[in-house]
Amino acid sequence: MICSVQTATYSLLLTKLLELLFLQDPEFFKYLEECDKELLDFNDDSIDDDQETDEEPRSVPKEEPKQSVKPITMEMVDSWCNGAEDGKIGSIRSVLQAFRRACHYGEDSGDNSAPKFSVMSGSVLDKVMHFVLKNMDNVLRQLLGAPSFGGKKEKISELMLTKTWKRHGSLMRVYLVNALHMITEMTDEQMIAFTIHRVRASAVFLAAFPSLLRKYVKALLYTWARGRGAMPLVSFLFLRDLCIQVGQDCLDMCLKGIYKAYLVNCKLAKSIGGSKLQQIQFLGNCVKELYSVDPQSAYQHAFVFIRQLAVILRGVLTERGPKTPKDKTKKERGKPTNKQLEKSYQKVYDWQYIFCLELWTSVVCGCSSEEDFRPLAYPLTQIIHGVACLVPSARYFPVRIRCVKMLNCIAEATGTFIPVSSLLLDMLEMKELRGRPDGGVGKAVNLINVKQVDKKTVKTRAFQEACIYSVVNELAKHLAQWSYSIAFFEMSFLPLVQLRNFCKSIKADRFRKEMKDLIREVEANVEFISSKRAGVAFSPNDPAVDSFLQVEKEERSSPLSRYVATLHQRAQNRIDAMDETSVIVGAESSTFSRRLSEVQKQQDDNEEKIGFSKNLLAEKKKTKTAKEKTKKRARDHDDVPTEEDVVEDLIISSDEEEDENNDLESDEDGSAPVEDDSDEDFIDPDSAYKKQKKAKLKKRNKYQPSNKASSKTKWKPHPKKKAKH
User: Fold this and answer.
1) How far apart are CA 352 and CA 241, in angstroms?
2) Considering only CA atoms, which of 241, 179, 189 is closest in space to residue 215?
3) From residue 470, how far is each of 30, 121, 424 by CA, in Å?
4) What confidence tens digit (pLDDT) does each residue in 187-220 have?
5) Which of 225, 436, 628, 672 could cross-link 666 (Cys pair, CB 3.0–4.6 Å)?
6) Is 149 in a helix, a strand, or coil?
7) What are φ and ψ of residue 119, in 5° steps?
8) What's the number of CA atoms in the CB half-sphere (13 Å) around residue 642?
9) CB 80 within 8 A of CB 120
């Protein structure tokens, strides 16, 4: 009591002194207020705290009252959903708040500002997620006065100037932010695809939030490139809607990002499987579709990327360096070795480079009707021709065949003549295709799945067969493109001469028969053109040449056109016989409208089957299990030396426990070595003599430095040499 009276008197005295100081010297008081504000903010609590610290604590401090948490029931959710459909602001806010808690379900909130609704059951979580993802777009559109479906960036810009947007525009941001959190944090592919499919309806509103738009584009590019099932297609359709609805701001970002994501997927080994080839073909079709949205803007990006390919090829071609006088020695010339040249060639003969060429071939062919993209056909043709002629070796015949297919596609799409026959006829002049193979029959070779073959495969009959059939197919396709030209006789003269010479030199009957069939069809087409142009009165320079055999060309009734159709079917049957997949390189791109309807039907069928609560609970449980097992491993292996830069996969399922039990059983049986300084793995515990030896070894190890590295490996004498004693 006396202490409290003294404290009150002291506090009153200090207060009066401060008031007196303010009246007498206001400048000094202002200085104290700026420099040492704590001195002026004097109160009784500070003195009480100081006195309590000097004395022993007499009572336990009271805990701060926790914020009350209300559980969310199904009745509350039903009332909110009905109110949100009627346009009530309070119900919409409550539903979005519950949606936020559902999106962050199972996460630890470190701050004290947790929402008042934090507890919900699994059925309530599913109800909230399904309602928000299905109906929140329509609800917010009615509230904000936006169009009922779709829209453009200009409409959103006008909407942002209204009072309704300033009041309730943040609700749309809350919805989009939490949906993005679900897309980036979930691991279940079906849930991610369903979320992207539903949020796609609100894509146009991302024009109002530029930072959120960039995050969405980044997340969608990742799910498009790395996802499986319906997720890549749904992500691409979302990106396509963003490019169409948002406009130029999003288009440039998507065109750059989708090309870089495509490059990442093209980093492959020497050979690839059919499923990976299908995936890359689908991704290429997506890039082609996105670049066709706005050809004028896409031309700038395509020009830059094609120029990069040309720069790489030019660097490889100039790797040998400029020519030097012959009087200089080999060292002075600085000529690179064969290994250096082969390493430089691998920059071009790489899957990433080859797939990029095929991508831009499909883009240029798909946009060949556009005037903006037609100028890119010429430099792309020069690059492909340079790649085909870079290394004239039989080991790189698969790359040359791919280049010929690309050139045929460009010629057919643009209607320009490209001298492809010389690339194919040069292959027939090489000894690997003319002579008898020395390596036997060999395994079947699929030139689609490889870019380079080894020296042993080149000498096999299977490789010779695959190359000759490919030459026949591509040469027939090239000649069939011009089988309606009035100059076909002159165009086919040199190929016919070289094909006849090859038939005379080849010794295999089946290859000779294949070549004779091609020669017969070419000669039949020559007679077909000669008979038609015999009754023509105009000259080759006359513009009327364009109308020559126009009806026959639409009906595709020439002998070579019918022959190419049979060859195409035969080649497809041969590929299906070698592989289980049916992938055709250069085939027509998939119809996105048909695939969209299939995916949408699948999403609608699985809509009620998707259980967000089960998946989120499973993810939360897995996360806890992983953390517990990580801690357990850390405790168990504190004394065991570990190697640096070693990362082990964390097994979350029950297989890890079985592996640990198996390891314990093997240790008890003595079959697995024990990582210890002593030689326990040499001791039989059932032998008394060995037990005594074990005790002696332990006693001796106390006086000798331990070598943990040597305990892991046992020294054994060479079987042919006797151990020295």
Assistant:
1) 28
2) 179
3) 93, 63, 9
4) 888 999 999 999 999 999 999 999 999 999 999 9
5) 672
6) coil
7) -115, 130
8) 11
9) no
CA dihedral sign, ordered 425, 430, 435, 440: negative
Q: Assess contact for 606 and 613: CB atoms under 8 A.
A: no
pLDDT exceeds 60 at position 420 = yes
Q: Counting beta carbons within 10 angstroms of the beta carbon of residue 498, is it exposed (0 to 12), middle (13 to 18) or buried (19 or more)?
A: middle
Instruction: List Cβ neighbours of 112 (8 Å cut-off, separation of 6 or more).
Output: 67
- State the pLDDT confidence band at 397, using cuts at 50, 70 and 90: very high
Q: How far apart are CA 165 and CA 145, in angstroms?
A: 9
CA dist., res. 234 & res. 580, Å (int): 27
Give the Cα separation of 414 and 369 in Å (integer).
8
For residue 237, the surrounding DSSP H or E stretch is: helix 231-245
Q: Which of 656, 636, 718, 708 is nearest to 677 (CA)?
A: 708
Which residues partner with 450 through β-bridges?
A: 271
Per-residue b/e over 137-152, b at no fewer than 16 CB within 10 Å? bebbbebbebeeeebe
201, two tokens: 């309806």
Q: Which amino acid is at 190?
A: Q
At residue 491, what is the residue type?
A: M
Give the global pTM: 0.70
Neighbours of 630 (CB within 10 A): 11
What whole-number distance in Å separates Cα of residue 315 and Cα of residue 313?
5
Neighbours of 531 (CB within 10 A): 9
Output b/e per residue, 446-458; b: 16+ Cβ within 10 A: bbbbbbbbeeebb
DSSP 119: E
Phi, psi of 71 (to 5 degrees): -75, 145
Pair of tokens at residue 314: 């030019």
User: Distance (Å, rounded) from C-alpha 179 to C-alpha 231?
Assistant: 15
Residues of the chain by 3-state class (helix, strand, coil), percent to 5? 70, 0, 30
- C-alpha distance from residue 474 to each of 150, 529, 582 (Å): 46, 21, 19
Question: pLDDT for 333-353, tens place per residue?
Answer: 555 666 666 677 888 999 999
Helix 189-199 and helix 592-605, axial crossing angle in degrees, nearest 10: 110
Task: Give the CB-side neighbour count of residue 313, counting CA atoms within 13 A.
Answer: 24
